[in-house]
Amino acid sequence: MMAKHVGWGLVLAVATASFAWGAPTAAQKEELQTVAALMTKAGALFKAKSFQECGEVVQQAQEKISQLAASRDKVILRQLEVHHKRLKSAHALLELEGVELPELLPLEPPEPSAAPDKPGKTKGEPEPAAAGASFVNHVAPILITRCGTCHVNQIKGQFSAANYGVLMKGAGTDGKVIFPGDAMGSRIVEVIESGDMPRGGQKVTAEELALLKKWINEGAKFDGTDPNAAITTFSSAPAMPAGPTVAPATGKETVSFSKEIASVLAQNCTGCHGTNRPRENFSLFTFASLLKGGDSGPAITPGNGAESLIVLKLRGTGGGQRMPAGGLPPLPDDVIAKIETWIDEGAKFDGTGADVSLADIGALAKAANSTHEELSADRAAAAAATWNTAMPGVKHDKQESANFLVLGTVGENTLQDLVQKAEASTPKIAAILGAPSDQPLVKGRLTVFTVSARYDFGEIGKVITRSPGVPGDIFSLWRYNGVDALGVVLVPKKSDGSAPETLIAQQVAAVAVASTGKNVPRWFADGAGRVVAARLAGGDARVREWDMAVPAVFASLPAHDAFLSPKYEPEAGSIAAYSYVRFLMNDTRRFTQLMEGLRQGGRFEEQFLAAYGATPNDVALAWHRKGPGKPPKPPRPTANRAAKSE
Ligand code: HEC
Ligand code: HEC
Fold first, then answer.
1. CA distances from 599 to 435, 485, 517, 626 (A)
2. Nearest bound ligand to CA 15?
3. Rounded to the nearest whole angstrom, what is the distance from the C-alpha of residue 178 to the centroid of ligand 1?
């Protein structure tokens, strides 16, 4: 019953928040604050599962509320509304724990309503008889209070009343307990009339039983909005507010979450509201957790920035400490105003995913909106940090060019030579990929780490791929995520027939493909990178290793398209992708069309379909039928063919 506890948490802090409005007189304000304090205390007790004590505190709050309500002051009543609503859910939740509480009277309506209520009869009874019996208003409260401990919180006797849907299904294999239109024939009535149910404590009153029967005889209809919503969300067990849902941005908003807010929250809040025991259980790590809120419930009320808890806390008007706490300076007013406006505009989401960290969302948005120079500078700073993480205390040389930033321990001269060769290949790579020659191949450049010890390769590989280890038999790894564009190359001390620039060409081609369009899958970029390297240097020892491996990998595929899954074994998957993408690239017209579509910003799935007339999985069938081809012959410069065609 986690949800319940969460729901109760909510009760409390919105109470605090409402003080932002300020109360009429000092004395009344003090009383209101006492109520808020009591609610907070009750919430803590509930969390600690001290239900009886919690009930006592709730009772105190309830008394104070009815005293305050007696003033019939409009402003006070308005402020009390929120407390009262929370009290109602507190009642429902406590009743589920078997705590008895005095009846919660309705607040007097703040303004005389259109249908004038007779003053005498406002006292809390549901209004059964006149209209039809309602599931939401009458039956749900009975089931919660009388049967809830065993049939909402638990499923005793395989019978659950947790929501309308399961209630109507009935008990286990015995089947229905409610027959619409036939109360007397319904098992649920029988077990109550016989005195069998409820077990223990509180009996069903005659009036409640009459209501239940009436409802069944009237057809046992559902009058809420969602028959599968938890029964505790209804009527006297009212709204247990869940966080708002993720609403995608329309593009018309004036404030962009990913560009203007994500990084602010990631930088200023996640120290205390991160993944590790966030304060008040409020995590700002992802958009999903931001929306969910903390112990006080959702911190964001879409459409209402000024009264959203997060804004109140940022302005210091939400009770408790001003955020960010811990003596940190408050956020600038204009930043808070941005957040408020963003919430006013519906708290729309324009990031990559609700479960992606806000830091990544912010960084991604920043990278997307940076120039080549800005992004290059950011990546240079990030490269230094990455080096220090992977190789603390180890000195390195550095070389820069239009398309590359290369760091390494292979010696200054080797590094310089490498960068020159890599730079010399880029126009050829651009031509193979159909990329414009007047722009950098990779916006923000590719960072390449070059090392000569396998151990170092592994250390850097772990950091850049964010994995616990890297395979022991590979020489090259790359990673691209919109923010980082990284490669690491192992340069053996004694040449083994492979040139490191071949691997750099592979990486820059892979990253160039990965950074074109949207949703480009890893297999496609990886395969394309290898095909490009093979076309440039068909005789390279690494390329020959890939070629040699193709038949065995091909034979071991459990299905023709198994390697398209990101979960497929990485190196084998890359070898299969290498063969498959070569097949795709052999159809130059279609491949050019695909790359062109991606360059226009298209999504990979759509562009692939448009270019090849089928999905990657289906086209893989054609590739698979064709077979892996013959094992490679001794080096023959396939590369020159590609080079000539330019
Ligand atoms: C304190 C626990 C408890 C409470 C409260 C309770 N029940 Fe039960 N109920 C049980 C148990 C235990 C069973 C399992 C069957 C048995 O032991 O007879 C059960 C079984 C049932 C069944 C299915 C078995 C049958 O005989 O058809 C129905 C229907 C049922 N209860 C209805 C209710 C209703 C309606 C309420 C509230 C008015 C209620 N119960 C309250 C404990 C409880
Ligand atoms: C140094 C630690 C720290 C930092 C940094 C921090 N908080 Fe808090 N936050 C707390 C503590 C402690 C509480 C609970 C006490 C309180 O509300 O006064 C809290 C409570 C909150 C709450 C209320 C949550 C609830 O459900 O009750 C919100 C909202 C909040 N913080 C937002 C933020 C935001 C937004 C930032 C960044 C701008 C931030 N916090 C930065 C420590 C911190």
1. 8, 18, 5, 30
2. 2
3. 14
Lookup: tokens for 613: 């007339």
CA dist 242 and 522 (Å) reads 36
Write the pLDDT tens digit of every residue in 376-422.
Answer: 999 999 999 999 999 999 999 999 999 999 999 999 999 999 999 99
Q: Which residues of 366-379 are buried (b: 16+ CB within 10 A; e: fewer)?
A: bbeebeeeebbebb
The CA 97 to ligand 1 mean position distance, Å, reads 16
Q: How far is the CA of 196 from the centre of ligand 1 (A)?
A: 7
Q: Which amino acid is at 174?
A: D
Average pLDDT of the segment spanning 138-160? 83
> Comparing C-alpha atoms, which of 417, 471, 428, 419 is closest to residue 448?
419
Tokens of 410: 């292979």
pLDDT, tens only, 455-493: 999 999 999 888 888 888 889 999 998 889 999 999 988
Ligand 2 atom closest to the Cα of residue 312 is 29
Question: How is residue 79 written in tokens?
Answer: 């402020």
Nearest-angstrom CA–CA distance, 214 and 186: 12
Whether residue 359 is predicted with pLDDT greater than 80 in this model: the reply is: yes
Nearest Cα to 505, choosing from 414, 453, 613, 429?
429
Q: Which ligand is nearest to the CA of 175?
A: 1
Between the CA of 4 and the centroid of ligand 1 the distance, in Å, is 21
Contacts of residue 369, defined as CB under 8 A and 6 or more positions apart, other chains included, come to 259
* HSE-up (13 A, CA, CB side) for residue 537: 22
Which ligand gives the minimal distance to the CA of 263?
Answer: 2
Answer yes or no: is pLDDT of 169 > 80.
Answer: yes
User: Residues with Cβ within 6 A of ligand 1?
Assistant: 146-147, 149-151, 156-157, 159, 171, 174, 177, 187-188, 191-192, 197-200, 204
**484 HSE (CA, 13 A, CB side):** 18
User: When comparing pLDDT for 636 and 164, which is higher?
Assistant: 164
